[in-house]
Write a structure and sequence with these properties.
The complex is a heterodimer of chains A (about 675) and B (about 45). Chain A has about 675 residues and is mainly α. Chain A has helices at about 1-30, 35-40, 45-65, 70-90, 95-105, 135-140, 140-160, 165-185, 205-210, 215-220, 220-235, 245-255, 255-265, 270-290, 290-310, 315-330, 330-335, 340-360, 360-370, 400-410, 410-415, 435-455, 460-480, 490-510, 510-545, 550-555, 590-600, 605-610, 665-670, and strands at about 380, 385-390, 565-570, 590, 615-620, 640-645, 655-660. Chain A has a domain at about 550-670. Chain A has 29 helices and 7 strands. In chain A, β1 and β2 (about 385-390) form a beta hairpin. In chain A, α3 (about 45-65) packs across α15 (about 290-310). The radius of gyration of chain A is 26 Å and the shape is globular. Chain B has helices spanning about 5-25, 30-45. Classes of the chains: A mainly alpha (about 675), B mainly alpha (about 45). The interface between A and B is medium-sized, with 42 and 27 residues.
Chain lengths: ~675, ~45
Amino acid sequence: MAWLHLISLAAIAVLWFVMWRTGWRWVSACGVEDRITRWSLATVPATAGIVLAVHTPAFLSLFTGRGFVSPAFVAAVFLVLTVLTWMLVHRFVPRPEYAQEKKHSSLPRRGWGRLNPRSTTPLSPPLVRGEECTSCFRWVPVVPIVMIVGLYALFFVEAMTRYPTGYDGLHYHLPQAVHWMQTGSLDLMLGQMHRSLPDNAMLIPMLLSFAGLEKLITVFNVPNGVLLGAAIWGLCRAVRLGRAASSVAACIAMSVPVVAFQTFSSYVDLYATVAWLLSLLALVWACRTGARRQQLGLIILAGLSGGAALGCKTTYLVLVFFLVIVACALEWVAGKSAPGRMRRSLCGGLVFGTAALACSAFWFVRGAVQAGNPIYPLGVSVAGKEILPGFSDDDWFPHRSLATKVQRWWHYPWTEPKYAGSGETYSVNNGLGAAYAAFVPIGLVFAVLLVMKERSRRVEDRWFGVYATLVLAGVALLLTVFEEVLRYVLGPVLLAIPVSALLYQRLQIRFPRAIAVVVNVSLLVTVAVAALPPARALASRVRDGSWSRRSFYSIPDVVNLLPSGTRVLNLAPPHNTYALYGLRLANDVIPGTLWNTLVEDGEVTAANLDAHRIEYVFLRQPPSGRPWPDERWPRDLPVQCIYDDSPYLTDHPIPASRLYRVNTTALAARSAR
Amino acid sequence: MEHPSTSDTDRIWLAVCLISLICYLVFSQAIPEFVREVIRLIGRI
């Protein structure tokens, strides 16, 4: 089967590229002038195609109870979608000018040139304010770009020499993806919050796990990191900021430590953030285009991208709703005449919402069918009465007053206290970086003051107002319903960068050298601090020569060699769950959180082990001298310790491990008696 | 939005950006942790 999976994955990759080409024609015909924006928006149909291609067999599984999700099925559906999209785009979208030029050109375009068709629309005058400062381009963007490329290259090399990381990813995102792969369905697990999350971002890791391509799972977020830079560039260019300011804005966004660390981890916030920003980018261009047909084409793209974000995390129920409002308000932002405005705006909102549901409806239907709540696992209660069953955020987060939250966060960009996660200050949860702190809060104030002072009627300046409103809404969410989790509002936090680029551009015209020094110093500080953890990790692996999965996750080698379907109970901390799936991702792992709901008080007894067919039990040494869990087990429990490294790891930073093999024969005999 | 390019105002904004960067370098928890870690690594070498 492995070869079939590999061929199917290769077919999906080829189809993705064909879909991207079709998307390019779609976006070009919609009048998007900027090349990088076209490149980034052209990925939206391809991403949406993969999401739909996985959701289709998942729907079949949902209603038949059989496993239909496999790379071959996904490739077949993706092929149909690609052909349909290609036919629709070539039927309804006018032939791009580049093709006609090519037909009559005496100089045929060769090689990579053929992959970069020109715009279908004539190039507009330079989309630039302050572009006259061309000499600055030599000083400002080149050094930041080199620093960012260097940082990401280091991260990439480090990532390719290890295995997937990230607490949440190892705890439930990747285990959920592997569980889907093993069952061939995307069904939820009632009563299990961490096995019931909507997770569009995990569809690619799930497909890769069919073929055991774990190294690619490690770097599955890298395209999202690159797309983020392109989206920020596009959001700057769409409001007519200069190339230099847009480049620096993209560099500042990619220097944000949360972004850099998430690009090489198995967290899903970056995927959702990029989809959300691309959706907004499509809406900005929809506002700029004149023809209604072009506008609708871009609103459909925006909706598809918004839907990809919506199906990724329950927090995007709120953030994507903001985009629906923006889609409805396009007519007002564009300053178009009143007759028919209401009808057109409602039509825009409806098209956006319908396209968004195409990429997210599966999760709502799944929740409604299997849990009686379309937004499961998020529960809804009114006045203490449960309206929709599920989990409340009271179960997850500590509650603080708004005043306390404001006190904790108003200085965050400059102080960066560790409010979430552990370990380094810069991580997947924490850190905005020196460049963000130096420019963005001040630039935001500058832009708001300027918009209020000048009361401009230009469309681009109204968009600055929309951006700033979304940023402020994000900050409000951070301090209220999102319970101070910074990465939940990563999109609005990064959207502040294009707003602040207005100040950067103005200062660049006046003081090019001074501003170049401030940018380069701030980026250097951020890059140096962010580069330390991957550099140290890589150096220690080189020093110890520890490249294996066993040594990376500190698990016994036998776990990687167990027969397919071996059931392993993980009573270690939950982030060990993914590692226990083994090298071939073939074990059946029961995490401790699931075990606690399966059996009363999470007790390990012979009857419980037998009832749930547990074959191995994995333990880690508890912190701060607390007793091992196996010290509380019954003495006659039919288990045998086959691995124990605690004698060798006393006072070691890596906690010791124990692996028990359950004597299933003795259990069966005991049950028979 | 056309900007009235008064150099004094622009100087003030530049100074505020600079102060913002200095505040980060002084107050961010990332910097002392980074310095401590680098010193520790140099000490081990």
